[in-house]
Amino acid sequence: MPRLHRQVMSFLIREITSGAIAAGAALPREADLAAEHGVSRGVARECFRGLEERGLIRVKHGRGATVLPSSEWDMFDPEVLGALLEGSESARVLGEYLECRCILEIEAAALAAERATREDLDALSAAFQRMTTTAERARLNPAAEELYQEADIAFHRAVIIATENRALARMTEPIHRGLSAAVRRLARPEERFERGLPEHERILLAIARRQPDEARAAMRDHLATVEGYLREYGRAGAKARDGATARSSLHR
After folding, report:
1. Cut 0.90: pTM above it
2. Beta bridge pairs of residue 60
3. Which residue has the higher pLDDT, 159 or 238?
4. Looking at domain 4-72, which of 3.40.50.300, 1.10.10.10, 3.30.460.80, 3.10.129.10 is its CATH number?
């Protein structure tokens, strides 16, 4: 079971990210928060500390805790990201992650084609082989889809590592970590394998053949496919929300 402060903190993270508690609003003081949730003041204090670490609030002595604007939030924190992906702006959040990937990974593929060592190529090939193997398992057992997603992320991490740029590897690490929480929302098992595997193989071959322009184009085309899934996800979410609004209106 999660600790009490995590339960309260998770509740408040969702309240803040959903806009139920707006930027600039004051949170209850420790004693009030503790009483409201039936926990000790120590638990409430730990909750505030966790929220502050994630950039959601600012605590000032004598003035309490104030909610910060979304520009201050730690968008790579799994709990913050998870809460955002449950909300109405989930497609926008995923779009921001994809934009980061486009900025970094398209050029990274070209650099990898120029710089990859034999060890880098072996790691990239192994990651692609895991994608192929887990795709076959996921076709028979949907529960194995998560294994495919993990192999997919490992492939992209291997591309970044193959650039031999340590700073770039550190920059992209939180993006891929966040991606692991978000990628299932783009999952289209009936198409991802048929489209995704050939697209990743094209990237792999371009890097292995030392073709920077082709590697760049292959990565660009692959991320364009992901963008298409994202648009579809956004349309589906909007349609679902419109349907919920319509049903709510009928019952008023």
Report:
1. no
2. 64
3. 159
4. 1.10.10.10
